[in-house]
Amino acid sequence: MSLHFLSSITGSFSQGAAENPTVAMIEDAYKDLGINWRYVNCEVSPSNLSNAVKGAKAMNWKGFNCSVPHKVAIIEHLDGLGDSAKLIGAVNTVVERNGLYIGENTDGKGFLTGLTDILDIKGKRVLILGAGGAARAISVELALAGVESIGIVNRNVDRGRDLVSLLNQNTSAKAYFIQWDHTVAVEQNIDILVNSTTIGLYPRTDQHVNINLSLVGSHTVVADVIPNPPETNLLKAAKEKGCQTINGLEMLVNQGRLGIRYWTGLEANTDVMKACLNTIFA
Prior knowledge:
single chain, alpha/beta, Rossmann fold, 2 domains, six-stranded mixed β-sheet, six-stranded parallel β-sheet
């Protein structure tokens, strides 16, 4: 009888790791695939990020996710970047290839899958709250998929304008910047509103994004990347306006599927992952 007790390891590096349900979802997907793989959720501070990457490589991890606040900072600790991560300037999925750690990005692709299931996005007008790693990924993928315009709303002027320049120089979408130093009104012509910030993330679930939705109509799709809680204050307010909404769990499932494909070469069952998350947040 052949015995094998060495699992292939993947995981996640973030700060605020305890609130991330990805570990449960991916472990269920691995079990469903019948493979001896594990996913380890790790609390990693910015000062320990370099050591965490070295440790993962020393222990022969097959790859890992990185979340807030590491999506941009992780780049200097990797051996290279895939094409999408290079353009986006942020990484959320690291893949081991021939002993090298290569950064990829599934944030935007995961978001896009959920959005295109309910809307033809070509020619649409988008407003994105935030300009961090998730915003960069989502805006790039939306631009490449054919949206007409993208407004970036952000407190930090340099970061916001940097993302606008990236979009205008590398895609056909018209990008513009709005400084978030006031209550931003979401104009009636906005087709897609995306919160890519952590405002409202557990345990700060009472937080509200500083925007005015009075002009928004039922034609606007409102999405929030926050998975916990699945229904943020923004999504509640959008539903009251008759908007279609997309919560962060949809994006999380699609990101997970893409990550598992990168690491294992296998297609995970998204129904298994959705069932896991629905149980957690029931």
